[in-house]
Description:
The complex is a heterotrimer. By secondary structure, chain A is of the alpha/beta class. In chain A, about 35% of the residues lie in helices and about 10% in strands. Chain A has helices at about 5, 20-30, 60-70, 85-90, 120-135, 155-160, 165-170; strands spanning about 10-15, 40, 50-55, 80, 110. In chain A, strands 2-1-3-4-5 form a five-stranded parallel β-sheet, sandwiched between helices. Chain A is globular and about 45 Å long. By secondary structure, chain B is an all-alpha fold. Chain B has a domain at about 320-530 and about 625-643. Chain B has a two-stranded antiparallel ribbon. The two termini of chain B are about 45 Å apart. In chain C, about 70% of the residues lie in helices and about 0% in strands. Chains B and C meet through helix 20, helix 21, helix 23 and helix 24 of B and helix 4, helix 5, helix 6 and helix 13 of C.
Amino acid sequence: MKVLAKSPWAVHFNCNSCNGCDIEFLACLTPLYDLERFGVLHIGNPKHADILVVTGSVNHRNARVLENVYIQVPDPKVVVAIGVCTSTGGIFADCYNILGGIDKVIPVDVFVPGCPPRPEAIIDGMVQSLAKLEAKRAGKKVEPARKPTFTFRPPAEAEAPVTPSPAGSAGRGGKE
Amino acid sequence: MGEWLLILLILVPVAFGLLAWAAPGDRSRSWAVTVGALATIALSLVFAVTAKTGESWISLKDLLGGGTEWLAFGLELLIAIVVAVIAVRIRSRLILALALVQIGLAVAEEWFSLRAAPALPGADFRIDSLAIVMVSIVSIIGSIIAIYALGYMKHHQAHAPATAQGSGRFFFVLVGFLGMMNGLVLADNLRWLIIFWEATTLCSFALIGHDGTLESRKNARLALLINSFGGAAMMLGSLLALSGAGVEHLSGITAANRALIPLAFLALAAFTKSAQLPFQSWLLGAMVAPTPVSALLHSATMVKAGVYLILRLAPGFTGSRVMFAIALAGAFSFAAAAALAVGQSNAKKVLAYSTISNLGLIIACAGINTPLAYATAMMLLLFHAIVKALLFLCVGTIEQKIGSRDIEDMGVVMFELPVTTLMALVGMASMLTPPFGMLVCKWMAIESAIASPLILLFLILGSALTLFFWAKWLGRIQTVSYHATLTREKLPLSILSAEYILGGGVVLTAIMGIPLFQILFAPLAVQTYQGIGIPAEQLSILDSVGGLDICLIMLFIALAAVANMLTGRYFKPERVRLPFLSGENVVTDARTFRFRGLKDEPDEAWTTALYLDTVFTEAKITQWTNWLAILVLLTMFALVVGV
Amino acid sequence: MWSDWETFSAFCSGICPALFPAIMVLAAPLVGALLMGIDRKITARIQGRIGPPILQPVYDVLKLFAKEPLFLNRLYIFYAWLYLAFMILVVVLLAMGQDILMVLFVHAFATIALILGAMSVRSPYSRIGASRKIMQMVAYEPILILFVVGIYLSTPHPHSFLASAVMKLNQPLLFTLPLLLPAYFAAVVIKMEKSPFDVSSGHHAHQELVRGVTIEYSGPFLALIEIAHFYEVFILFFIMAMFWSTNLWIGAGIALAGFFAQILVDNASPRLTTFWMIRFMWAGPMLLALCNIVWLYGMGRG
């Protein structure tokens, strides 16, 4: 019997997300989407969890924390990364402290794209992760997920010096 | 044979105490104390084994010839005069007044007994099952504590203030105390009872004041004051018994007629000795003394004297309203002292309040005055003596090691003192969990209190509060983590052996509790209450104790233990995780409770148990409960006069 | 069919003395799990959700057994086993008709085992949870003891503490203990960890204590605690059914009514502080229980 897929408990870890994805994840638990009908419980504690739901672009300060939380989730476990920040750093990618994707810290099983993703997308990602969870329990080798390519910035562009355009500087308001 | 053993039981500890005092060095003193303690244990065992069934009476007159009355009178006066001299030396007018009252009462009593020619019938000492049980408790547990004190005092004297007395005098009083206590529980003549009663007061005064600091002198004076008050009450009671009812023996008070007024005064004396509310302050102050003293006062001697007296008197007064008042006072102390213990984080103070609370329970059981309650009281007395001795010894060792007696500081003891902590755990667990005797006792106490709702209410509230303060302490000291290594502590042989023996005793009484009850205490209670009808309900409870329940509990604990051992197979180092600290653990920390806080500096994750000190404020509660307790005592006297 | 317990247990004992306790021990967790499932379903419906399947608690436990066992130390696992063992023992003792006061003490010790397990690990959340659990016990334990006293007084002379004596009553307990039913109900709300008293280990997500006393248990060990909780749910409502012991169906009706009522209370109330809980319990339900006991003494049943 697929016991793991029938009662996946999720712990949600926010490593400096803007809270957009977090609110969308919480929306999944509301009456409109009701994730609990699949047995999903939102647990605050990694030791009880099966799914580690991560939002936000991990940085140097909280990479250690993310890793620690991951270690405390008992096997078999899957990681669902929500939002573009988790794959590349998203709009924070240029900040001095961003690692550029949580897969640099822990293996990710499902990336859910979007900024923020819609609850339907998140639920879809959770359901996909359940298949991987059962596969892991059965002892099959599970490849880490590939990053969503269309949000991936080419390295050359990322390294290029950022030159503020006149329009951009107006948008930054009061910097000059 | 029995009579000489009795004399030896009183004199041998005193003699070896004197030897210890006279001993020139530490080594010879250790020998004197050890041999004395072992001799006392051996004597009490021989005494218990060779005693005849039923009661036997012993008069000093038959042994020593005439003049024993004058000996008793002389000793009585001597002790009162010593108290007076001490009162002058410590400049306490109140104690001096009490001592003078005692001298006056002693003279008056002598005058009355001289007038009552021919001499009143009765023996000086009585040997029966209650006395034998008490002698065994006093001699065995007291001696173990004396042996423990050898190791403890070596450390203590090295760090003691300059004002402290020498260890010679300390051991003299400590060991001699046991002799006085043995005399107390064997005496039937009120005069001898008073002599030993006052002698224990003096002993406790000397022991509490051992360190000679301002605080210890103050508390020693308080103990002397309150216990002299109790002594005076007792002498007044005995005088009233002599003048009113014409008896001067405990057996006379309980048997011949219903001497209610002396009973009330003797009960008052017992309350002071057992530190029942409102007289609890001296026992709390007594914890400034070195730990073996606290252990001795709380477990085998002193406070048990009061309880013993109530147990001795109770069966003679079934159905009397005074006994109800005594039970009420005891039950009230049980609940109030438990409430007071809740707000305390000082380990010794918690133990002290728990002692007062448990003694209250014993007195409540004795006051309920049915065979079941009586047997429960006896069993409680035994368990409490062993457990309290063990706990005080463990706390003493812990305090010397970690330099604090605060419960919240004891989270580390498992790493530093694993053996002592394990023993302390056994002791604490025995206070609140099955299958240990305390729980069975509490169960029986509630079942026997069912006829008196008010007492029952106090017992129920007290039980809930008791659970509160034990559980949080127990939880604190058993803290362990996988990563830190436990190293067995190196302690002196005397300390370790005392801890092992008492710890073993606790476990043994847990296993043997029910057989002990059925073989020893239940028949004893039935025999004590001979001639008084025992209700069918109680007999059935007496029978049902130890039926299936306890066996099943043992079985299920064993099952859990086996299951736990099987689970151990899955235990692998790589499966050990740090506790949840929101992911911020300091991963390399062996004690596993540090996290990275501000500026990434390691910080300790720290929570304390709830003490609710805004609700359970000691000063506030003490004030209220003292007034209520005084009210209960006044009720007792009002009932005496009303009857 | 069997409308009273005595016939049923006598029927079972006729076949084999251990049969009735064995049936109870096996049936209790299933009933408990089912009740918990219904609880979650109804709560979901009250909140306008579809909710998990009724058997979700069973799936949860099966899932937990499939997880890897993680440890903090060896000691706290023993307490999880003790918690379960004592809960089973309570059911056994009840089925055998043993002394109810002893049953109560064993039940209390099961909870103490959980508390001690939570306190044996160096985890601040778990410790705060344990402290609050102790407070919960202080709040409801007197009521439960008073309840037992009430049962004792309700049995005919000579009074008896035996559970079997309750089954032999010829009038329902509710007639003699009308005020104790609401008091007991308040105690059940605490024991079920329901709002407004879910202070030590709430079932709902994102409580401030993460998960309180059970935080450090994971995988199979959490499953042990869940199973013990199933037993506890069964015990609580079994005892509630004893209020009408002369007819099993009416008793079960009372228990079910109590069950639905606590779901309503849970969904309609916020979580309150520990102090508030103690104050409320000692002032309200305990007073009710006391009045009932005093009334019984007044009727000359003492």
